[in-house]
Every structure is written in C-alpha cells, then in structure tokens.
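Entry 14. Ran structure prediction on the chain below.
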Amino acid sequence: MTLIDIIRFLIVLGLVIIVHEFGHLIVAKWVGARVERFSVGFGRKLFGVTWHDTEYIVSLLPLGGYVKISGMEPGDELKGEPWEFLSLSTWRRTAVVLAGPVMNFVLAVFIYYVLFIVPGEPVITTTTIGLVRDGGVGWEIGLHTGDRIVQVNNTPITSWNDLISTPEIFTSGDLTIQIEREGNRIEKRLSPPPAIGTLESQFTEEQLAERLNRDGLLVRTVQKDSPAARAGVVPGCVITSVNGQPLVSARELAKQISQHYIKTEDGAFVAKPLRLTWLDPNDVIQEGEVQPDLFFPADDAEPYHPKARIGIIFTPEETVQDVFIPFHARLDIAPRLEPIVGAVKEGSPAEKAGIVGGSRVIDVNGEPLNDWNVLVEKVLAAYTVEGETARGIPLELTWITPTQEVHTATVTPEVRAETIPSHRGLTTGEKVFVAQLGLSRQTERIHYGVIGAAPKAVEKMRDVCSMMFYFIYKVIKGEYSSKNLGGPVAIAQLAAETGRWGLEKFFDFIALLSANLAILNLLPIPPLDGGHVLLYLAQGVRKRPVTLKQMETFGKIGVILIIPLMLYFFFNDLERVGLFRWMKDLLQAIWPG
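Output, structure tokens:
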C-alpha cells in the first residue's frame, strides 16, 4: 500500500466518522447540552481552538473523531445542571444519539445527488445483441449476435435498460420478441416448457442452505421420470464429479451435460451416457450412469446443435462472467458495447502499457474486436493456475488513441483471488481467480438537474440500505458466510482500490461506507447508538431516569459484545491479506516434513 493509498483511507474513514460526530455535535447544542470537546482524530492533542464553550481540536491519530458531552461519560461528575446529558429529556437524548447515523445518511444522499448531476447515471442505450450464450434461452429460440431488439410483448424497447427493467419479461410465461435482422422484422416466441412433476425434497430450506457448503453442486429440483431421477438422484443431493472430473460451477456442469452427444456419419445426433458421482441425502457417496435426453433448439439457432438434458435444476448462481458482463438474467444475451475505454486504473497493467481513456481497442491477439464484452471474456480467461496461485497469460492488444494514433503492446492481466457476489460466494466466502487489465468501458450517461437528481439520490439510498439489511439478515441466519465481513484493513483496501479508479468510484464508496456506518450504529447493541436509543426507550417505559451507573454497566455489556466481534473482523482482515497463508508457507519451509 502506497502513501497515497494511506491518505485515501484516512480521507474515507475520517470523513464518514467526522460527519457522524458532527451530527451529534449540532443536535447536542440545539437541545441545550454542553459539548466540551469536538476532536478530529484520537489521542494526543496537536492543536485547537475554543469557540462558544466548545474546544475544537485536531488529535494525533487521524482515524475518525469524537464528541465529549458533559455528563455522558462514566467518569463525569454530575451536578444536576440542565445542560448535563442525563438532565435532558428522553426525546432530547434520543435526538442527540440518532443525529450521528442521520448525518451519515445525509452524507450518502448528498454524494449520490452530486454523482447523478455531474458524471450522471450510466446507462446502456443500445438494443443490439453482442453475445448469445451457447445453450442459453436466447440461443434456444434463435436469437443471433447483431439482432436488434425492437419490442417485447408489444412493449417498445429503446435501450438495454428497458430490457432488464421491464417486469413482464421476467414474470410473463410467454414472450413475443420482435427483432430486426438485416433490415427484416422477425418475431421470436418464448414459451415455458410444459409442466413436469418434480420429486419432493426431504430437506427444509435451512438444511438445503447448509448443504450448499459441501464440496460440489447442490441439486435443488429433479424432474420426475427424468434421466437423473431414474439414476437415483433426488433433491438435496450434492453432485461432486462428472465422468470423474471435479466441478467448477453449475453453469460448467450444465455445459458439460449439454454437450454430451455425438454426431453419426449419417448426420444424426445421439446422446452419450455420462457417469455422475454424488452425495445422497445421507451423505453416502453414490455413482451411476445417466443417459441424457436430447433437446433441439429453433431451426436458425447459431451454432445449430442439440442440447443434452438430464432433468436437474441447481441453485442459481452467478459466474465471474455474469458479474462483469451484463447478461440478461432470463434470455442469456448481452448487449453489443463499443470497445472504447472509459477509465484506466492507476498502476494497472493497462496504464503501464500506455492505454488512456477514450482509446478504442480494435484487436486482441490478432483477432479484430468490435464488442467490449468480447474483450472482457478474453481477459477473464487469460490466466493459468499453478497450485494455489494463478498467473496471467499475456494478451497482444491494438488500440487507437483519442488523437488517432495506433499502438500495439503485449499486456499481461493481473490475477487476484476474489469473492464474487454470487449465491455460493456469499454463502461460503470462497474465492475465485479474476484476471483484469484495469480498464473500464466508456458509458453513456443520463444527467439529472438539481431537482431531478434529488429523488434519484433518495431512491439509490433506499436500495443500498435494503441491500445491507438483507445482507445482515442473511449473515445472522447463517445463510451468508461471515467471512464476507471485514474491518479497517478491508476498508483500507477498498479505499485504495476505488481511489485508483478515479473520483466517481471513490466517492461512491464513501457514500456506501457512510450508509453502512449509519446502519451498523442503529443496531440495538450497546454501546452503539441504537443501543442507547433502546436504553432511552426502556427509560420511557419504566418512567424512571437512567443513572450514570446504569449507563456505565450498559457500556460494559457493550464492550463484552463488541470486542469479540471486532476481533473477528480483524481476523478476517488478516486472512484477507494472506497473513495466515504466509505463516503456513513459512512453517512448511522451516519444517518440510
């Protein structure tokens, strides 16, 4: 981590905490409490000034700040003065405590407001298909690369955002998709398959969630009388290998199964049997031969071939490609995007190669390029694994700069192990290798005015908070791995990473962290702000004031609860930076046996 990365971390953490404490300060003064000190930083005082009975100081450790209100700390001597914290009414104390989280929400909304005005909201305006996933629904009904989607079920489609935000596309059983291909209008129809009975699972949803953590792929549904059912596979089984080969993902397994056929000399397609190994509901290893059924797509599907099926539905999951390529969730198609560079990450392989924003990538490894998503696919696949590590495979790129200069260079992707936001990734915390050049695509933008940006910012804030509450709920239930949680090291890493991408991503991260801090502080746990609110509500119910001794006891309970949690966050941080793996490698080097 460089000096500039450390400065970014201090800016991020300092800003969100100072704004939080500033909320406590202004409301405390408003309700009549005496604020003795407002400190930027912790530890030894460096310098300061006193104004209106409050000392404003800068302290040695720039990791946040604090507000000292008279009569709030356990060591304070109470004299019963009206400006002492415990002398305030319940609603005034509650207002002081809630002001910190509220100011964090205000900061997040303000940042989103500015981002919607200045850079604007990124959108995908095209409706032209750039990628059709082989074996996906779009391929099955005969959609082609280069087709332009005109309307769906008589609803005009004017942008890719329309396609992914129209509810009926996901909820409607039957779809009529009108496309334009080589100047001709063509209609494609998508109908759900006929209802087929499924085998009942003997597991509850909680038990199925627990079985997701097993090595292999969890079978969610098995169709009755299907090849898998005849082989003895039932819901809740965990498939561990196909033809003796371990599995990477459900999508990879589906791909292997779908391609399990041969073409005879007379042009006929014949499914080939495959051998599955799985853990049954009693965790006993089973093995059996499965003869797939063949399904044939639309006559104009490209490439044309059958698809082998065995009647299994897995728990949905996202792959690395799904995270970086905007595939349509139902149709398995992605838009054609101009391969024009937007931002270049500071210190990345792309920056070292001399690629600048506004450049157009025209060639990869000697193959012409006209779609950004194709570049993304090639980069994501450009690595090789050696043991527990991976290294990038060099790519030869040719690009045209904004000044119309043509450059060619060999660029080796940077490969990192990351947890992608897939169901399995969030559930197990497992990491996958991701190869990146450090390029982002130049995007079209919708710019909102000073009035129109306000509701968009509030809507964004609402979505972010909903996502966080959902994540916390899943972690508490045990459905999401607590390995996804982090502390100061994780914040420092994200501050450095987003800062290298430019101001937009950097401030977007500050908004996200500010909202995160607000929500965490509202949890009803002492000594968090939410814990204090819970204490004051209890006071209102009991109709007796809280004493300093009770607040001290309350604080001690909070310490008992919070310290183990903070230690766990720190443990995750150390594991995230590879300290434990480094120690393991060191010990193995010292004692090879």
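Residues 548-576 form the longest helix (29 residues). Will compare against last week's run tomorrow.
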